[in-house]
Design a protein that fits this description.
Elements: E1 6-7, E2 11-15, E3 18-21, E4 29-31, E5 41-44, E6 47-50, E7 55-56, E8 58-63, E9 77-82, H1 96-99, H2 103-106, E10 109-110, H3 113-122, E11 127-130, H4 139-151, E12 155-160, H5 166-173, E13 178-182, H6 188-195, H7 200-212, E14 216-223, H8 231-245, E15 251-255, H9 270-282, E16 288-291, H10 296-299, E17 301-302, E18 309-314, E19 317-321, E20 352-354
Parallel strand pairs: 9-11, 11-12, 12-13, 13-14, 14-15, 15-16
Antiparallel strand pairs: 1-6, 2-3, 3-4, 5-6, 7-10, 8-9, 8-20, 17-18, 18-19
């Protein structure tokens, strides 16, 4: 094994010289030398190994709002990194150069979990985000990094499609403090035709986060014209969220731009995002946002009791703040759902690439 290859535990033998990966609902079956659909988990000497441990496509300090998380330490910087590969096959992938790459094409940077935690501490980042591609597929590297960060009091953020099996999901989220889950649509047809996946495992992850963990989480749906943006589907999605997750889970409706294998679909009009936000709020979602557009009204947080602007935003920039240090409305005192610790951060919209090690 190489320095970037480590054994994994979520697999079993199925006979005929093959093993099955049990990390995600894809259940890839491999013979020696073969890789799973994610490309980074491989059968080697009769076991599944991760081939990208300690290697990254790059490190960058982002605003936490870029993940997007609007109710988790607003205004603070987060050290973000990813690896390569993905366990879904979204034709509309907005990070296809990372998620669809073969790892040796993109993994130029290396950092141990301890080095990542030390860098986040040195750079005054309140959290580390496992992002750009799904941390589910670099499960072992993400968990070891998260454990090292916790030792330094640094929070851990997962940006994920939620496509993971029950046992590894439990282990993974023991180390996470926040997550943004990509709920791509609300039909099996969309998931299968455009992502080669299934809807139910994602819903299971959302239900698990809500009812069995203390992880703060928000949901993002990328609205693609003609694919998942109908009033009917948005009604069903937002009603399900309120009924099963409650009114306090923030929803982000973000704009698609033509990319990867869907260059023939036009960009999402801002009016579509506003329509989705209106539907969500009409169905009882207290915190619904528009994303990937300049929209101060759609990006700002309002009190669900008195409608006061609590956090004024334009894209990733905070321009007003009316919350107490523990997250209560400065006008009426109602609690705003989220993780708030003191005044807003001042990182702004900066994106700062960094080298580690």
């Amino acid at each position: 094994m190489t320095e970037s290859t480590v054994p994994t535990k979520y697999w079993h033998e199925i006979g005929d010289g093959r093993v099955q990966c049990d990390l995600c609902p894809r259940y890839c079956r491999m013979r020696d030398g073969q890789r799973g659909m994610c490309f980074v988990r491989m059968c080697e000497s009769g076991q599944i190994v991760l081939t990208t441990y300690g290697r990254s496509s790059g490190f960058c300090i982002d605003p936490i709002e870029k993940k997007p998380l609007n109710h988790f330490l607003p205004g603070t910087p987060v050290l973000s990194f990813g690896t390569a590969g993905c366990n879904l096959a979204c034709k509309f992938c907005q990070n296809w150069d990372i998620s669809k790459s073969r790892e040796f094409d993109t993994l130029a940077d290396a950092a141990s979990p301890a080095a990542l935690a030390e860098a986040a501490d040195h750079l005054n980042c309140r959290s580390v985000a496992f992002t750009y591609n799904d941390p589910v597929i670099f499960h072992e590297y993400a968990i070891d990094t998260a454990a090292a960060c916790r030792e330094r009091g640094i929070k851990n953020v997962a940006v994920t499609a939620g496509y993971v099996c029950e046992e590894p999901r439990r282990e993974f989220y023991r180390y996470m403090d926040a997550a943004n889950v990509d709920l791509k649509a609300f039909t099996d047809e969309f998931y299968w035709e455009l992502a080669k996946g299934k809807l139910q495992p994602v819903l299971d992850t959302l239900l698990y986060l809500k009812h069995e963990t203390d992880v703060w989480f928000e949901i993002t749906t990328l609205l693609i014209p003609g694919k998942n943006d109908s009033d009917g589907e948005l009604e069903e999605l937002t009603q399900w969220v309120v009924q099963h997750l409650g009114p306090d889970v923030p929803l982000h409706f973000t704009a698609f731009h033509p990319d990867w294998k869907m260059l023939d679909i036009p960009a999402t009009p801002s009016a579509t995002l506003t329509r989705a936000r209106d539907i969500a709020m009409r169905n009882g979602v207290r915190y619904a946002y528009t994303g990937n557009v300049h929209d101060a009204a759609g990006g700002s947080t309002r009190c669900h009791e008195c409608n006061e602007v609590l956090i004024g935003r334009d894209w990733y920039v905070l321009h007003s703040w009316n919350l107490t240090d523990n997250g209560n409305c400065g006008k009426c005192g109602a609690k705003c759902a989220g993780v708030f610790d003191g005044p807003a951060g001042t990182w702004g919209a900066r994106r700062m690439p960094v080298r580690i090690g």
